[in-house]
Amino acid sequence: MTGMLAKFGLVALVTFASTVGTVSTAAAGQEFGWGIYVGGGEPGYNHHDRYGPRPGWGYQPRRHRPEGCSPRRAVEEARWSGLRRARVHNVTPRRIVVAGFRHGEFDRMVFANVRGCPVITY
To answer: The pTM is what?
Structure first.
């Protein structure tokens, strides 16, 4: 009987301690305060968003951005790497081949068709 009362007291003590810690944390967020706001409205309130986005009023829907490397970006990367008269030679779902001239000879660069256009081979 004494062991059961000791366990019950321990459980009651742990429950009370956890409840006191939770109540003080929850009460901290409900402070009352006064303030003067220039421009009207609450802080963080934007009166343009009151009715939501409206087409024709500067609203632009999000467009899907392609995740791969664009051929234009691959040509820019090749020119930056020193390939002159760079042109797209071949495009596949996995790679983009850019051909041009380097040091007076025909050369090509192969880029992976993923974001960032990493170079596979020179």
So the answer is: 0.47
